[in-house]
Amino acid sequence: MTNHGSAAGFCCADHSGAANAQAILAQAEAQARARGLRLTPVRRRTLEILLEAHGALGAYEVLELLAREGFGTQPPVAYRALNFLVENGLAHRIRRLNAFTACAHPSEEHSAAFLICAGCDSVTEAPARGVSDALAAAAEAAGFALERATIEAVGLCRICQEASA
Amino acid sequence: MTNHGSAAGFCCADHSGAANAQAILAQAEAQARARGLRLTPVRRRTLEILLEAHGALGAYEVLELLAREGFGTQPPVAYRALNFLVENGLAHRIRRLNAFTACAHPSEEHSAAFLICAGCDSVTEAPARGVSDALAAAAEAAGFALERATIEAVGLCRICQEASA
DNA sequence: ATATCTAACGTTATATCATAACAGTCAAGG
DNA sequence: CCTTGACTGTTATGATATAACGTTAGATAT
Q1: For residue A59, which nucleotide's C1' is closest to its Cα?
Q2: What integer pLDDT is reported at residue B165 of this predicted model?
Q3: Number of domains in chain B
Q4: Which tens digits make up the pLDDT trace of B33-51?
Q5: A61 belongs to a structural domain
Q6: CA-to-C1' distance for B118 and D29, Å?
Q7: Which bases in strand D are touched by protein, i.e. have an atom under 7 Å from a CB?
């Protein structure tokens, strides 16, 4: 668990290009306004950092970037901003990597599945309607009131498959 | 993240009763023999501890129990045993809780889904064929070679639903 | 305008989870 | 016997996360 985010450079995931990042950021702001959320400077900048990243970032990686830019230097600063983003559907926590990534589809109500490459640690957010439907059914059958779910798949992304072929 | 395992006592999940635990343990031993695994005393005892637990246990909780019984006292002792069990399908790691739980169906090839109660931290292993099928399809569509997956649902178990009704 | 309130921020300090690296032990096979 | 490799245990440290508290700043009501 030492190999977060930027570790492998440009490997697999079609990570958010700059243009896309701008669009997502705008969308996030619109949502924040609409829902009465306060997208403060730290929070906004944290989201930007995630959008600019090539992969998921650990909280301490985010913190270092924030600190360099004059925000607070201590862990709670990063954790609070990240938790805010996660709680409001603007980012996701990738537990397997102890890391965070910007949500690729902030507008839609969704519980996404993440495809985590064992070769390069890239993270792809996959649409998972079928998966969550199946999960909802399983929960229902167990009499369990489902709130939300974490779905993380480990395997090899296309590029790493080809590389090892 | 302070409230592991035994915290809530007898709450929700129909956790493994003693009889069931014996059966699972026997099954585990059979599997170990069949597959040439060494189910050593620490490993076996670790599995027993998980089977006896009312919920998922953190590594340090397991460690404390092992230490009391004359096994090693340092974290790697617990982590090694737990990782062995997880790698060989005898236990699961619940990442949301930073905890481990015995596998309820050690014989079958399965990628289970876990229903984690937000009220009492109980963990139920739900059969998830439909879920993993859907996930496999999503991975396939993304050109991702799926190896294994972690599926963790958060919500309220039946008992906690009734309690809060 | 200004008093008041609350959410957010930043800090110190500490808790919690996890692994690297190395030495000793022991059973299996040459 | 003695080597070999897997396992255990230790020390030491690293990595992740949160509790608690004082301060700041934006909103609200007067």
Answers
A1: D16
A2: 75
A3: 1
A4: 889 899 999 999 999 999 9
A5: yes
A6: 39
A7: 6-12, 14-20
The CATH number of the domain where B108 resides is what?
Answer: 1.10.10.10
Domain assignment present for B3: no
What residues in A contact B117, CB-CB < 8 Å? 144
Which residues on B lie below 8 Å from A96 (Cβ)? Answer: 95, 150
Is A3 contained in some domain? Answer: no
Examine the pLDDT at A152 and tell me if it is beyond 70.
yes
Report which residue type is found at B71. F
Nucleic strand D within 7 A of Cβ A74: yes
* Strand D, CB < 7 A, residues 119-158 of B: none
**Which residue in A has a C-alpha nearest to residue B127's C-alpha?**
A138
Q: What is the pTM of this model?
A: 0.90
* CA dist., res. A113 & res. A130, Å (int): 10
Considering CB atoms only, which of B135, B142, B145 is closest to A151? B135
Burial class (CB in 10 A: 0-12, 13-18, 19+), B164: exposed
Segments of chain B assigned E as strands: 91-94, 99-102, 113-117, 123-126, 145-156
- A11 has a chain B CB within 8 A of its CB: no
Determine contact, residues B91/B103, Cβ cutoff 8 Å. Answer: yes
Considering chain A, what is the average pLDDT of its residues?
A: 88
Is the model more confident about A164 or about B149? B149
d(CA B127, CA A19) in angstroms, rounded, equals 42
Domain that holds residue B85: 10-163
- The pLDDT tens digits for A46-94 are 999 999 998 999 999 999 999 999 999 999 999 999 999 999 999 999 9
Cβ contact (<8 Å) for B131 and A127?
no
Residues in chain B, total: 165
In a domain, A1, yes or no: no
